């Protein structure tokens, strides 16, 4: 029968990602009843720890309940609501509080002022209040406008009295607050009104005095006249400046032109005998009207306006030039008529030159006169500007005084109106606060709540216990489950040996041949035998070593019963006690161990001389013999090879019971001298790290590890219910009905 591998196991420490088939639930598969059973067995395995935490939690809670003084709670409720609403025009906006109204009121209730007033109301000694008062709590009544005042105290009567005192102190505080606010507002506004009245009177007196001193009645008209004159003067100054600049621009142009052009440029638009803008005695209104209606030509024709003299000269020159041209067609230049005409032309040119000089002189005189007039206009503008500025400043000062009067009058009216509004709103309460329910003495304490505390302590104790149980299970580093052999050690799993209550008084009962062949224990050794017989290269696995990492893991019992099971299968088996320090295999068969394996290695005996019959068919034994002082050196002598050659010829299987690898040095040497080694691990006890180190030592010596046997596995522990169900199905159980106090550790050798 092949060795069995359990489909599930519990959580373990230091494991890599858990493969499918392990008992710990993983995201890769669903949570089923097997997982629940596994966790149940984890708890059952260390149920004592849960019970201990449960008892400790209950004990601590009971002690605290006995020592704790009962606390009573009394609650008084207040209703906070808005009173009669005020009109928006007379609402006292300055008294509105910033922030949440309910939160503000609760802070006031918890303030030292209200608490001190409540202490005064209860009228009890301060020592008694400090002794009985435990806690003050002010909380809103849900989303309503109700505030609950809760008092925790050691005396129920005191709790109700103090809660009511808190409510009454708060009501008095609100009443005083409203009264003080109204009174302080009235006093403040009255003072401001008196001050405003005085300032308004002073401002009005200033306005009246300023009017009298500065004749403000005609000041505005005077300012308007000055502004109008300044505008006309500014226009005239601009015209004069423009005309002067034009004449100055003509000056450089006069030097490069003819006399006729100079006279044409410098002549006035007309040379009237009268001035149309300023009529004189030389012109009548009729002439002016004719000139305005029909132009200056008619006036020239009528002799009212004369042409300039240079135009006459020009006409005369043209006429003379014509006469000269005509005469020359008929006469020579010496002719008296031609000479006379030439003389007339010369006289004309001299007269024209005189006119040019006169025109230039008039031009420069007019330019100088225009500069003088421009300065005069500017000076007049400056004088009128000073007058206008004085008038404007006086008007501005008067306007400022009037604005001050208007501002003060407005402030005074506002304050007077506010005083009237306060007088109206004194009898109206903007908010309503009243005690909705008085506190009554409580009939039962709020703390301690014995049943609730005990129940919570039980839950906490159980929770802590379960946490410790699963924590210890998680940090457990031992090899506990068959699948861990392959996963963590990388060895072939040969089988699992259940724990048994061996008879401490009779070692012979430990032999497989002496126990019930239908028991689960016997079947487990047959599983190991099957795994060895059907393993790869079993023809080469003649000599085997059964070892362990540390002492008392069951390697002796395992090697003994595996040998018996092989012998029962018809093989000739030689069982050799290779523990040359503490070997005791001969005691299980009731034979002497005086001569044995040590004698052969020391060359003092032949192999056939130390072989003893065990009484079991096909099974012989080589005991240790005397314990030598140097067993490690003996293992490497040539006598060992001679012994192995003889044993291979005479037997089908050679089984060595080897000492622990981590305990003695010759164990690893013996493993390297045989065909293969079997590692025995005590389920739930042997450390995973220690087992891995043992494997490393064995392989470093060149030995071959065939597989691992999981020994002393308790089916009642977590994860082993699968095996318990398997063996229980066939009723394969092997237990002695003896007191556990007399159980020995024979299986741990």
What secondary-structure arrangement, pairings included, does this model have?
Blueprint: H1 33-45, H2 47-67, E1 72-82, H3 101-109, H4 112-122, H5 126-132, E2 133-140, E3 146-153, H6 156-214, H7 216-250, H8 259-266, H9 285-294, H10 296-302, H11 309-328, H12 336-425, E4 431-437, H13 450-475, H14 482-489, E5 493-498, H15 520-533, E6 543-548, H16 555-568, E7 573-577, H17 585-589, H18 597-601, H19 607-610, E8 611-613, E9 619-622, H20 631-634, H21 638-650, E10 653-657, H22 666-672, E11 676-682, H23 688-700, E12 705-713, H24 721-729
Parallel strand pairs: 5-12, 6-10, 6-11, 7-9, 7-10, 11-12
Antiparallel strand pairs: 1-3, 1-4, 2-3, 8-9
Helix pairs in contact: 2-13, 4-6, 6-12, 7-12, 8-12, 9-10, 11-12, 15-16
The largest sheet is:
8 strands, mixed
Q: Please state the CA-atom Rg, rounded to the nearest Å.
A: 68 Å
CATH class of the domain at 482-748: Alpha Beta
CATH architecture of the domain at 482-748: 3-Layer(aba) Sandwich
In a nutshell, what does this entry contain?
This protein has 24 helices and twelve strands.
